[in-house]
Amino acid sequence: MILLLCILFFFISNYHITVSRQRVACKKASAHARPLSIVQISDLHNQNFGLRQAILCKKIQALRPDLIAVTGDLVDHAPYQHAMAFVKHVSKLCPVYYVRGNHECLAGNYEKQELLLHSFGVTILKNESAVFTKDGRTYQITGLDDPIFQGLDANYMSLVKKTLDHLQDFLPQQPSACPDFQILLAHRPELFHLYSSYPYDLVLCGHAHGGQFRLPGIGGLYAPNQGIFPRYTSGLHRENGTAEIISRGLGNSSFPLRLFNFPEIVHILVQ
Fold first, then answer.
1. 3-class DSSP assignment, residue 256
2. How far is Cα 67 from Cα 47, in angstroms, rounded to an integer?
3. Which residues, in sequence order, are bridge partners of residue 21?
């Protein structure tokens, strides 16, 4: 009986999807603009939630997103059929914006993945920006490519800073021509102090898996590139007028179990 209860507990811990809700204010107020509904998906790692991802996709559809932001690690070292089944479905709901994580590189088959993503109409952002408009308000969505694609999986801050500096060159010089709200999609959350030194209103990240094991009152126990008792594993953080939202992710990678850390969809309203 105890063994069965343990199996049930770990199954629920790994497959019960929760929806976390966040609200972020747009500094440029508008009497006519309705809230922008963003669903953030991160670190799926080719996990499967129901036949052709039916459970996951149904939860996303119920949130009625204007756009879906995927902040890396759709895949793992395994094949990518479940990840692509997910993208194929949700790309029919609304525009999907995607940045690569470290596991897209480690899997070794990214070129095939990219062909499928393009066929589904996904906007892949590799150190570049796209513009999304709603109710007369302009949102600039910038994607920061994971540094592992430049051969760095450690000591990558200077590379990221150089990339962010370069991206600023493409912003309009006149304030009146600047976007109303700037969003940065970046897989790795631990560089928030750097991200917040640029004019981004909102940064969306993943990578930390919520700390994998979470303890009440303590939080996550370990995250890649942060180590033991990491600071940036989940939720909303603020610095220098920038908000960073970190998804706990949906799947697992090197370690196959979560503890007190349900898979997560993040629903964000920009008002």
1. coil
2. 22
3. 267
